[in-house]
Amino acid sequence: MTLEVKLTNKLTYKLRLTPQMRLSLNLLQMPLVKLKDYVKQQAEENPILDIEETGPASKLKENPEDLNSEGYEYNPAHIDYGSNEDDEEKQNYRESLITKPPSLTDHLLNQLHLITNSDNERKIGELIIGNINDDGYLISSLEEMAEIAKTNLALVEKVLSLIQTFDPIGIGARDLRECLLLQLKAKGEEEKFLPSSTFGRQSRQALAFQIIDRHLPFLEKKRYDYIARKLKASVSKVKESMKEIANLEPKPGRSFNTERAVALAIGSQTTALWPVRLIPDAMLKKLKHGYEVVFNNWELPQITLNKKYNEMIKQKDTPSDAKEYLKERLYAARSLIDAIERRKETIKKVIEDIVYTQKDFLNNGGTHFKPMTQDEIAKRIGKHKSTVCRAVTNKYLQTPYGIIELRKFFSSGVKQENGEFFSSKAIKSRITDLITRENKKKPLGDLEIVNQLKNDRISISRRTVAKYRNQLKILSSKSRRE
Q: CA triplet 56, 60, 277: central angle to 5 degrees?
């Protein structure tokens, strides 16, 4: 058999993404903050696009239809809204959405500007505050910040020491040990933490200070005997000092949870860690018979088409090359507006389905969490699973329990003896509840937790309980015993 080369015709089918589809998919997976920056960038590059920066109040005033305060009813094929509230209640609710608590960064900057008169120290302080995460910890080295600020290390340390005196106490610490020590020092003078032969209130603080300073790793394991022996104190005094430690805040910035720090890198140069607002894509309002999903329409600037350039396209005296360019820009502008609208519709459908499925969790807490997967939602709303995945990535929902990432609403199910599935998150919540209410002198073992869960008709193995307990970072019964 001889080999030969020849031309043949072959018909094949291939799926190719159009530029409009690529744009829609790209915008769908963008978080709201990034989408806002993208829209501004496109407006700078495209003369046809006009954007108007308006505050939430004026946005609501100009487009009151963007927020409807109507009843939420779910139908697998249709979401229906029926109005049942007066105008005054609608206005009050809209105003409540506009109100935002002060961020941790703003709170610290206000204190910095009040105390510091030196421009150089103020700039270094702003850099340090920009590198404090949402828990209140400093997440960048002093050497790195000294290099960025082009100053000496001693001055950075001096400004950090000043910031560590700000409210909330413990802010700017580099680790848990330093955070707790800062809070103990703030309670009194330094002599309170010197060793004492008598065990009054002052020496109880002194003992707590020494425990944190020297033996913090042994607290987690509850090695009270070891700590008492090393510090030459009785076990009862060590446990008494634990009351001081229990009253300390391990995450001083947690009350300011609307911002989080992220690292930005440009090329090979690492920049400072600047705070980014955590903006919910939608909010939930509790109604008499369910929840209303209020989509966040006012964070994005208003997008319009420039009338002047639009008219130039229709004019006969416009040069052909200019007219061709404007037509191309007009097509790009309309594609952007359509893609943003499709993004909104897709995310809203996903959120409405999540709210309907998890309404028991929203009403009654974590033990009522339902098993739910992205594939199930995709089938119900008629979208591909990858579309749902993009729609929930880096998207947030304001709930009665705070701002929750949409991905957190999904969990696998554990099959029960009756064939039904129980959410793994609901089981974890139940395990946490059991351990919280246990007798600390006789903590529950994993097998005892299995038996307790059976009373709630939850059937899982001891190995699964141990796995969930480790994921929750809960110690074994032996380590939890007091």
A: 25
Beta pairing partners, 50 = 304
Backbone angles phi, psi at 82, to 5 degrees: -125, 130
| Cα gap 131→138, rounded to integer Å | 6
Domain assignment present for residue 176? The answer is no
288 and 349 together in one domain: yes
> What whole-number distance in Å separates Cα of residue 426 and Cα of residue 366?
6
Give the Cβ contact number of residue 155 at 10 Å. Answer: 15
Statement: the pTM of the whole predicted model exceeds 0.85: no
Summarised one tens digit per residue, pLDDT across range 63-99 is 444 433 333 333 333 333 334 444 544 444 444 444 4
Compute the radius of gyration of the chain from its Cα atoms: 29
Contact between residue 460 and residue 444 where contact means Cβ atoms under 8 Å apart = no
2 φ/ψ angles, rounded to the nearest 5 degrees: -95, 145
Burial label, 96 (beta-carbon count in 10 A; 0-12, 13-18, 19+): exposed
Count of CB atoms situated within 10 Å of the CB of 53: 9
Angle of CA points 133, 135, 139, to nearest 5°: 35
- 387-438, pLDDT tens digit by residue? 998 898 888 888 877 778 888 888 777 766 666 677 788 888 888 888 888 8
Nearest to residue 274, comparing CAs of 145, 380, 408? 145
Please count the other Cβ atoms lying within 10 Å of the Cβ belonging to residue 338: 13
Q: Compute the residue count for the chain.
A: 482
* Number of domains into which the chain is organized: 3
CA distances, 199 to each of 110, 187, 192, 234 (Å): 40, 17, 11, 10
Last residue of a domain, one of 224, 257, 290: 257
Rounded distance, CA 121 to CA 159, Å? 7
Q: What is the largest CA-CA distance in the chain?
A: 104
